Amino acid sequence: xxxxxxxxxxxxxxxxxxxxxxxxxxxxxxxxxxxxxxxxxxxxxxxxxxxxxxxxxxxxxxxxxxxxxxxxxxxxxxxxxxxxxxxxxxxxxxxxxxxxxxxxxxxxxxxxxxxxxxxxxxxxxxxxxxxxxxxxxxxxxxxxxxxxxxxxxxxxxxxxxxxxxxxxxxxxxxxxxxxxxxxxxxxxxxxxxxxxxxxxxxxxxxxxxxxxxxxxxxxxxxxxxxxxxxxxxxxxxxxxxxxxxxxxxxxxxxxxxxxxxxxxxxxxxxxxxxxxxxxxxxxxxxxxxxxxxxxxxxxxxxxxxxxxxxxxxxxxxxxxxxxxxxxxxxxxxxxxxxxxxxxxxxxxxxxxxxxxx
Length: 357
Fold this sequence. Notes:
The protein is mainly α. The protein has 15 helices and no strands. The protein has helices at 16-39, 45-51, 57-73, 79-111, 115-127, 136-154, 156-173, 185-197, 203-223, 230-252, 265-277, 285-300, 302-311, 316-322, 325-347. The longest helix has 33 residues, at 79-111.
């Protein structure tokens, strides 16, 4: 992923373990999306609950993006590198948007669409994302730009304080929205905000705080070599147990609609990255392949989870979502990984396709 892969980065060769983690998390995201959207109540509860751990994936991708980018800059304020990085992400987002918008248009043509639906889609495409999941790309761009500008102007301490404040607002606007009572001014403000921007889980309130954490990790890593430390592992385990407990409490005690934005995910993601950096594994051909594969898996998953089954609900692809959930889960993961591998293979011969990852 160009979000994760920085060309000609002399430091990236040290971080092969990050690529392995990204691949695992990408597959977890696909499985979790399948289960939450198609198999709730039809699959073993333990598998359902364990798939909920996918909430750590996107935060980890954000902190990795921030770490690798700002580690490459080596503490300098390089506007050119920032612009180049953001342009690459926006190009990737544009090409994937073209693919998913085409599927959207075919769906409308086949099944019909109301004017209100079209207007709402256009607004969402401008303010949030053209399609599910790929919101991560523009969110990363926004997060990187905010982090860079604030750090350049105010320094890392102020940037981190602002990041925590923004993340807290994002949590209250999403997983903790039950704290805002119906009929209050805040409730009306949040409703108006969501009507336009869809969610606080975006580049401002989600991408920026995690990218800032990645920048902080880059500064720590520059200051002293990070090796495997028991302290990081202990904090990782403690925060992992704590954020799972947080998720259970707000889900079952307060009926939270989602548990994607948990307060403790922010420090957990930071120590998850530090622990991962402590596992020494140099990049090689296999880890580089994992990096590219995880990118494609993350971005093309909606082809089989949404786009194709929506157009052909009575086909084999439709059956995967409505038939045996275990077969469906296995096949969706397999097809997504296979498509990702084929894209990599073809891109080695058709260089234009490299713009997709």
